[in-house]
Design brief:
0% of the residues lie in helices and 43% in strands. The chain is mostly beta strands and 111 residues long. It is globular, with a radius of gyration of 13 Å. FE2/S2 (inorganic) cluster binds next to loops. The site of FE2/S2 (inorganic) cluster has 11 residues, from loops.
């Protein structure tokens, strides 16, 4: 498998998301991976509003109803499937996607 391995699909409970540090050269880029059933979606963990990480508590990325990714700072909510902000101060602006793939149950960032 190519790419940077993150974890196994079952390490992210269905309907939740998990944060990772993605080593990129000298830097570490904060990303999150959300899971819906067998599908996973990767995004930069940076709110389009003011660029902060979405979560305040580790891996606490979901809205109370569990339907959307949510920024803890001002409450913006994002669709899991495409990262689009549908409510909040950055409505209409998406999270930056990170290409992730699943091979044999293992999630990796695609090269
Ligand atoms: S920083 Fe995310 S909604 Fe303001």
């Amino acid at each position: 498998m190519s790419g940077h391995v993150l974890c196994r699909v079952e390490d992210i409970p269905d309907g939740t998301a998990r944060g990772f540090d993605w080593p990129k050269g000298e830097a570490k880029v904060k990303i999150l991976v959300a899971r819906k059933g067998g599908q996973v979606f990767g995004y930069r963990n940076s709110c389009p509003h003011v660029g902060v990480a979405l979560e305040m508590d580790p891996d606490d990325f979901m809205s109370i109803d569990g339907r959307y990714l949510q920024c803890s700072t001002h409450g913006a909510q994002f669709r899991v499937e495409d990262g689009m902000c549908i409510i909040g101060p950055c409505a209409g602006r998406p999270l930056r996607s990170v290409p992730v793939s699943v091979t044999d149950g293992v999630i990796a960032i695609s090269d």
